[in-house]
Amino acid sequence: MAKKILIIEDEKILREMYYDKFVxxxxxxxxxxxxxxxxxxxxxxxxxxxxLDILLPKTNGISFLTRLRKKPEFNSLPVVAFSNFxxxxxxxxxxxxxxxxxxxxxxxxxxxxxxxxxxYLK
Amino acid sequence: MDITxxxxxxxxxxxxxxxxxxxxxxxxxxxKLNIVFSLITVTVTIWLFGxxxxxxxxxxxxxxxxxxxxxxxxxxxxxxMYHFSIIFSNRRGQKKLLILSYIFSCIFLILSRTxxxxxxxxxxxxxxxxxxxxxxxxxxxxxxxxxxxxxRNFYQYYRDKSLGGLxxxxxxxxxxxxxxxxxxGSTAYAPAYQISIYPFxxxxxxxxxxxxxxxxxxxxxxxIRFVLGRGAVYGFSLIxxxxxxxxxxxxxxxxxxxxxLNITGPLILIIGILFFQPVFKFFEKLAxxxxxxxxxxxxxxxxxxxxxxxxxxxxxKLSSLIISTLIDxxxxxxxxxxxxxxxxxxxxxxxxxxxxxxxxISLIKxxxxxxxxxxxxxxxxxxxxxxxxxxxxxxxxxxxxEKLRENMKRAEASLFLPLFIExxxxxxxxxxxxxxxxxxxxxxxxxxxxxSDQASISLQNAMLYHKVKGFGEKLEKEVxxxxxxxxxxxxxxxxxxxxxxxxxxxxxxxxxxPLTVIKGYISMMxxxxxxxxxxxxKPPLKNIYxxxxxxxxxxxxxxxxxxxxxxxxxxxxxxxxxxxxxKSIIEELKGLTEKxxxxxxxxxxxxxxxxxxxxxxxxxQAIVNIIDNAIHYTVKEGIVVKIEEYGNKLRISxxxxxxxxxxxxxxxxxxxxxRGKAGTKLWTEGAGLGLYVTKKFIELNKGKIWAESTGxxxxxxxxIELPIK
Lengths: 122, 725
Description:
A: Rossmann fold, five-stranded parallel sheet, 20% strand, B: 4 domains, 12% strand, rod-shaped
């Protein structure tokens, strides 16, 4: 059974690009363009992993994580943060909220990200 | 003729009086006052000479002749005195009476030649005197009538409120002179009425003339109280000593009459002389206490000022001291100290009490004034200006003096007291009127001159001190100002710098998104996600990818630099094997070197190396940067990496066979935005930020990085040294 991955990304082009790659790699992809939508979808689709952008409109990735971790059923849901924003403080906060990794988008090709995700799902 | 010293006295007086009259007349022959005064001296001379001749008359006839001779002058006395009073006190409307008085004088002149004026003689112990007859009685009425008019004129003049202090004093003197003449001089009539009074009254003629001449001639008059006080002190001292001498003579007669007088006499004289000084001092003390107690003591004022002025170097305090001394001693309404700034500066008000500011400076602006003072080297007194003007012949100067007098009057300034240092004016103290309205006396001017000498030195010192101090303060202020400016500039720069970092950070983040998209899609194309691209498209796609990677690296470097400069880099220490890291890097970069046909190898360490404790990611990135650099600058042979242990440090050396570097290039290698010369040729894509970031990363881990090169085309070696713990 294909693994379900929720990608929360506000940039449309990136959303489409990652969608292509992940689908091709055989993942079941659910897309959200904001933290609010992401929260809704998490309870609905119960993904195996969340790929979370940090710089999001209105509610940012860190707030999303905080809310998510408050729900007991998602307390240990694997989340990988990926963002082009990488201030040390934000990185620290993300790790404290239990992200598996904090990936800088430009430093990885979509394939590399897929590989990383695969390794985290093992 | 039997001439004795006593009988000579009238003759000497006569000569003196006559000389004085001539002198006053010659001083200003056009002045009516001087002319009338001179005529009075003629009558007094006649009186005194007549008296002398009368005393020395051998016969009754002669005595009567000389007494009648005296009346030749005396008959004119009422008219002349009256005339004098009219001129002196500027009276008007008394002309008819004056003419009448002269007519009377002429009539009495004729009458005095007759038997009905004086004739016959009274015999006294001291000599003879003529007897007053009918017309003499009439003459006396005439005499006292005009004398009373004269005194009334003086009195009214004295009471005139518009009168200046000097004129008032002058009036006092004149009044005093006439008073002496009337009280003493009138006794001269007594012997004519069978009253035996020794005719010493001629002395009054002398005193009267001297006082009047003094009042007319002198610009500045001594305070009359002071004169009287001094006179009294001398008089009392003399009387005391004479009494003492008489007492001693009496005692000698009683007890020592066997001792000859030529022994006791000089002894008494010596005692008298020795006693004079203490007696004089005693009376002087008494007088200063009860008689002219209002007088300042010169010495005390000067000593006090001298003592106090050494306590202040502060110009302001010193000026206040001088002003208060002046005001207290002279009892002034207002005083101002105007000082000339050192080294040819402008005049400036230093301290002002009572003057209107604009007046103070307007007085000094007058060049004529300062020149006058410089030329004459003495104080200038407003009231004396009238006399100075009168005695000035130069028309232009006269006009200027008149203007100055007006200015002084308007500004209510009555005295300019110059402050001299080596005959140069360093300032002027302007004094106002005395509260009492009294003029400045001779003593005042003496004191003021002495005081100004003392004040000049103190003020000069203070001014120089002030200047030096002011200079120091100015310097301090200037430094403070500059420091503040620098600080502000620094803050501004810091702000700008922060803004720059912020800008770089935000811009970089914005740059990263499109870069991610390009990177992603190109990589996916090459991975055949969108079908197998034609072979010809593969190299361009790869080129786009490589260029994009450079851009990504540049953005990463920019971000790192901005973070380093903003001090926002954190170090996460962990223990790891440096050798393993280097191995993995070489593995990663092998592809690049193979493509360029150069080698990249790690020299196996001779012994096993310890782990180090540092920020693994940053150390890795730093080493990647250096090796990456080496690969880019090397076109043949290759790169050898070595790791060695040096004490408590590990040293990595990366030796290439590339372009090499000059000393200049080496010196600025690790600065931001500088690139090696070779770089401009071979690797134009780089912005030279890599080495800067590398150095910072190493330094943040307490390590050291440097490079060596023996010269152009001889390759270079980079060293990184890191502490083990």
